[in-house]
Fold each of these.
Amino acid sequence: MSDIFVSELSKTYGGASPVQALDNIDLQVNTGEFVALLGPSGCGKSTLLNLIAGFETPSSGTLTVGSQPVTAPGPSRGVVFQEAALFPWLNVWENVVFGPKIAGQSKGDYVERAEDMLNITGLSAFKNHLPVQLSGGMRQRVGIARVLTLGSRVLLMDEPFGALDAQTRLTMQELLLSVWQQLRTTVVFVTHDIDEAILLADTIYVMSARPGRIATRIPVPIERPRSLDLITSELFNGLKRDIMQQMRH
Amino acid sequence: MSNSSAQISAPATARQDGRRFNDAVKRTALALLVPVLVLICWQVVGQSAQFSGAVPTPGRVASAWYDWIFADAGMGLNPYLGTWASNVQYSTLRVIQGFSLAMLIGIPLGLAIGWSRLASLTLDPMVQGLRPIPITAWLPFSIALFGIRDMGSIFLIFLGGFYAIVVNTTQGARDIDRNLVRAASMMGASSSQLLRRVVLPAAMPSIFTGLRIGLGISWTAVIVSEMVAVKSGLGYVLWDAYYVGRMDIVLADMASIGLMGFISDRLIVMIEHKILVWRILQNH
């Protein structure tokens, strides 16, 4: 069963010189599938994510999530932003329970879940910290705990580790692997990092630029649970070679 | 182990405190140096034969101020004995009323203009169109409308604070990080929740800037309006004392106005530091 269904989707930005950001995109993401959108900057991968999130509206085509047409942003599609986008005036706990709280849920309904999500993201000791008191990696953990607490059907991640240093990025990838292993949510993960896409995803969609199109769909036949050791394996390097070749075309 | 480290760190912090104290003393001394020199020159020149009488010496101002504050009002025939507190109270009360009104209307209006395109198109041109009219130019209109009564003064104070608050709040609401709005709507925030829980707190630093500027203008407005529109308060005394030739009271009054402006500004800064801890941490 497909969770996200995209068909003949196009997006053109109007103005004096219109820019076609996405051209005729077809994409289906199954429930519990981890999909990576891989491509150079300007290929429209973030635009596609914004359309699925409901931040922008398509120019033409069909877009449904859980067989509902997407018309506006909403808690069914949790978004993790590149710069975390936490509310700087709220502490970690208040940021994480923002969604359930404004939805009018009673404390009993979300406290336990929020505690669990802080626990699996390693944030339990930082509940009272303000975002400004945390490192970039820690802030991104809060961004992840926040959408997990929201209980979204689909997680949309827009280069969430792109701004982190190499060391922290590896730690965060490992964290995401273990979190996903436990929760098995549907994920669309935007990245320009080939290693990251192979390590995390079940399926990689390679995109090309101007106009943004899906060039190829590459399944990643690597068993789960996965670990960081993978990156040096023969299978991994073979896949990487294939993808690099396709991206050059 | 922990004992010895405590013993080591204790003198270190004491030394640090000592250094900080010395720094503060030095800074205060430097800050006072020029004003004290000016006062001494003024006293010396003022006492000399040529200038005596034209401008009161600091000594005379201080003693007039003292009497104005502490002397027994007696039969109430001398308006400059013991009436300081009540005049300060009149002016302060007017500022509090006018400025509260400015906040009550200015902050929501600024948020609306900064956040909603419709509000921006319909309300902003009027605010920007009226803003270049100096508040002093409103004085005759205000007296005609409200008479020689408190409301005339409060209206001017309101106007003085209002523009600074509206303009800065608008800016704060416009400058909001787009991703914060996206994050909130992704979590299901309605537009009223967005406004209250995201736009308002995000605009808070700009709002406080507006409050500080606006309060300064409000103090200008209270003095100007009291000179003309009412018969009490520091502005009224200022003009009245000038008419009867009490320059010592004029100067004491000026110093009082400055003092009140300074205290009220510090008050806002104190509240700002309480509310905007996140912002202060961000800037360090």
Note: The radius of gyration of chain B is 25 Å.
Amino acid sequence: MLRMHDVSKIYRTDLIETYALRKFSLEVAEGEFVAVTGPSGSGKTTFLNVAGLLEDFDAGSYELEGTDVRRLSDDARSRLRNERIGFIFQSFNLIPDLNVYDNVDVPLRYRRLTAADRDERINSALELVGLASRMKHMPAQLSGGQQQRVAIARAIAGDPAFLLADEPTGNLDSLMSRQVMDLLEQINEMGTTILLVTHDPELARRAQRNVHLIDGQISDFRAYEPRAAAVQAAAPGASGAPGSAFA
Amino acid sequence: MSLGVRPILSALLRNRTGAVLVAVQIAIALAVLVNALYIVVQRVEKIGRPTGIDEPNLLMILSTGFTARYQEVASIEEDLSWLRSLPGVVAASAISAVPLSGSGSAGALMPRPGAPPTDSVNHMEIDEQGIATLGVHLVAGRNFRHEEIQPPLTENNASQFVPEVIVSRALAEHLFPHQNPLGKPVYDLLGQSATIIGVIDPIMGNFPDNPHPDWLYLMPRLPAPFFDGVHYAVRTQPGQRDTVLRLAEAHLAKSNPDRVVNWVRPLSYFKNLSYLWDRAMEIYLLTVTALVIAVTCLGVFALATFNVSTRTKQIGTRRAVGARRRDIVRYFLIENGLITSSGVLVGCALALAAGYWLSLEYALPRLNLYYLVGGVLALWAIGQLAAWQPARRAATVPPSVATRTV
Amino acid sequence: MLGYYTRLALKSFGRNPGLTALMVLAIALGVAVCIMTLTVYHAMSGNPIWWKNDRLYAVTMDNWDPNQPWRPDWTGPPPQMTYKDSQYLFASNIPERKVVMYSVDGVISGVGSAAPERVSTRLTSADFFAMFEVPFLYGNGWSASADRPAQPVIVLSREENEKLFGGSNSVGRTLRWNDHEFRVIGVLDEWFPRPKYYDLNGGNFAPPDKAYIPQQWGIDLALLNNEDTDCWRAEKVDNYKEFIASDCVWQQMWVELPDAASRERMQSLIDGYWAEQHKAGRFPRARDNRLTNVAQWLRDNKVVDNDNRVLVGLAFAFLALCLINTVGLLLAKFLNGATITGVRRALGASRRQIFVQHLVEVGAVSVVGAALGLLLATLGLAAVHHLYAAAHLGQRGGYQELTHFDVVGVVWAVILAVAATVAAGLYPAWRIGQLPPAVYLKSQ
């Protein structure tokens, strides 16, 4: 699925070079839920940017679903991001002047899809996150948790092979955090590979595997037991979206 | 917090596109402003030149005989005596062409027979009331006497000169530099001579656009009928012009069936037409200059606003570490000053280049450097004014912004 | 996709309505000023009979003073001819059509109870109407046989016919011109060439004459030109006979020469005549006899004056200023929205898609700006027209004839809109497309 080998990423300024990733290697198998943890400045965001094809790297190799992404043009990388990767950000990054429906529509617009096809995908993604009834709302009218669920719907609407989540609960309170994590687990169980970047060991513990980064290098692996009761923990109606499909 | 220019400059250089764009705007604005105003001032001076004529109280009439019965001299005498009898009329004269209108007669006039001909000199035929009618000042010598007024030229003596002329001071000075022109003879192309009996000043003749609109001599003669007819100039008391105009229009239309009165119009009509394009240029250039200033102001204002809004956090940090409000204001004003200065520097070169091009097009003196200095100062002031409000707003950013994440 | 981008652009305008209005206004002002200036420039620089540019020639001969040119700022022969020279050349059969003419003010009377009125009258020859393609509403011009001896026939302008005969077909009616009886044989349709290329002496944009009669009438009645008559030679001119034999220039001559061969023959006729006269003591200057086509004629006579070139330069400087202003504003606006653009890039938008999206936004601003500019220009031209017309007391002619808004203005608006989009929008749209997607995502 994802294979990084000896990937290095160096930030240069006039005076100094900083290794954000230093000979970083990681393999993620299809369907895995991997958490990447580490203190701030450890290279988590750089890893995410490189993994998500947002940034290039300086050395090493990176294969995504068997494709060597190093040789790809900007257009091809855009296309891969669009079709194979879904992004979830700490600050949601919803587009404030588009309503929920149009926000989910954004990645689909960059593909050749019929209007009917797009509509179907948007509806089912919003149903999955329990916000089908809010599709005409503007982001500002939603709570933080709802906004992040819209972002998740946007990430999965394109049916990506894997999801990159960057501190997805960082701006949320604990109840909402739990709902978002439950949702991610549910998506993972449906077969989507998930890479979760967080500094929170509590969240990381819910992943199947944990990669700890320090100074751009992996310091230790930890595997957790597969989740058991996680899905049941999401109580009906707790999302604040009565009657939603997620109840 | 250091408020030296160097850190501001280095901050500017790191994010230069916006600054460069504003500097370029200022450069273009300076070039346009300076040259447009220079042209406008020249037009204002041109329109404002003294004419020596009582313009607001003059009206002009054109009468053309068209039948075989028409008697030129009798008609002129009848018309003039009627016009002069009108209440509110100060004086009236037959005149060969309309002053300031751009049409009239001109020819060579020389201080000695056979001297090389001068640039052509404008001349008009008037009668003994001509000078009083135009309202020009006789500064030396005397006016024409009634008995000196010659009959109109005819088909048989069309090249005849006159015995006496009154000349403008500018023409006298040109023909006889630093001499008393009174009593001196002047010669036409055929060598016929006339004696200068009077000098008028100031005066503008028929041709405001000529290089020497004040070279003029007056001949004591009734206008010949074979150009476009006879003109009358009528000078009224202040405020009476339009009343007299209506009276004359009504009476002259019917008083003589052998001629037509083509029009009765205030002199200002002809002057306005002569300067119409200059006036339009003035209005147009001033409008564009105003727009240039407005657009430049908006550009400076928008960039400053953008800079403030993207640097809220930085401003908060500066405030948190102890910068006073006026330090923040000063920071943005100095930044604006640096941008304006670089724009002005380029603008000076641009303005001089445009000025040079204009001097080639117009054959005019080069751009006066005072305009450039004035323009530079004006743009400096405009830049600081436009940056003032955003800078004030920057100063209201609370220091607590520094500790907030979003 | 274009629909989607347009929707995004509208959303974006809604986000910063003030800034958007500023940009639209800046472009509108720049475009308006340009359209106004270009409309006037176009009207000034027009060639009303361009399709005859290789057939129609003004004939001039340099008979002037050996010591100075016709005017201090003039090179070449004077624009008008002497009577005797024009008559000699007029006798030639080389031109397909030929015209010798001048203009006088004549008094028309004897039509019902209408008061006598002085009207500018062209004294011309039979070919005038065909040569300058003058349209007729009623009747025709006169034939060459009416030229000499001059027949009492008159052609009226449409305007004059309306004034005298209420616009009815007046062919066959009689009137008195300078107290001689004339018969109307034709009425022109609306005809107002701008500039008045066939006779620039009375002003470049003066209205056409109101009546036309055979040229010989002017000579028979001893009438002088009401426009320019210029003399240089110290010769005694006491009467009309001496005048028409003098070196004064006051006659306008045009010929129509269908091909290069006839042109050469005409030129050598003129040069031969010149040589003969030169030997007899006339034409003291170097030989300079010209057949000038209309385009060159308009240039020689400086119909487009310097002021206008300056105004066009100024207008484009102003447009540049407005566009640079817009570039600055757009860049600021786009960079302000960089986070959102970063999200779009992360979600898979390619550089090109981001570029096109922003270009659509710029295009919308430009199109609205250009449309508003067109409106402002129309209003501006109307205002200028009003200014000129007021000074003319409602009469036609002069600069007011240059302020007619026409299809040229619309074409320029479209060109300027496209140019504005390209000039103002390409760089910001490209710049925003080049932003690395990652940088703005976490920067909040």
Note: The mean pLDDT of chain C is 89.
Amino acid sequence: MNCNVLIVDDSPILRMAIRKVVRLAGIEDDRIHEAGNGREALDVLETVWIDLVLLDMNMPVMDGEQFAIELKKNPDLADVAVVVVSTEANHERLQRMRDLGVMDTLRKPFEPEDLHRLIGKVLGVRE
Amino acid sequence: MNTIEAATLSNMTISMLERTAMVLAEPAVEGDVHPPATRFARIVYRGPSSGTLVLGATEGFLRELAASLLGVESMEINIDIQGSDALREMANIVGGSVILALAGGVCEYSLGLPELVASAEQPAGTVSVEATVVAEGGVLRVLWTQYNMPIAT
């Protein structure tokens, strides 16, 4: 699949675990990018075309909600597909993320098949 | 408002370990003696009530957990880096499960960031619910403390 995916999570071990699943979904390894927080993710987005962001919510420096707000402000990036992959359960916060245009949410822990399916669905819609 | 009993906390932890890392664990048998946990991670939650969840693990457990997450051999794991990261993330995941159970339906709770701490010690006067689970590599203790309401023991 010729798509670029950005994994945004403050846990390096989780990023690596998610990377494995993304590879299994057919994304080549050099098309998978990583960031440890929202600020780093914005930096990546300024230099690489990203089709899908897999976004954790609770992160230091810049959390997922702030990242989504910044993304929305930037006309060049406002249409990037974002899926929340997080333990976030607060319904108000999740509603705010949907209002910011997040396409879907996947609660941790997730089955690899769930993420695989979600990637296919979101990128399929984008194609 | 809901509460969580030790058996529920244990089952929740076992389920999270299996779903996250394919680590198969079971509740510790009462009376069995296990090595003490040497690494600890804590996560705070806030909402209709507030509290903490502290996970304490033996080194062997952390090796198995991190190795399963990464798909490598346990001896390849750097316990200070990958082991600690795996423990923090597990605190985050079990914490997420705890607040959903506490909320019952619509969740008004929020989790803080998981952090490494020196011990599982809780402030004097608080009551905690504890669960211990055993996996092939070692032991994981989970301590749930709710601060501003009575909790089941």
Note: The mean pLDDT of chain B is 90.
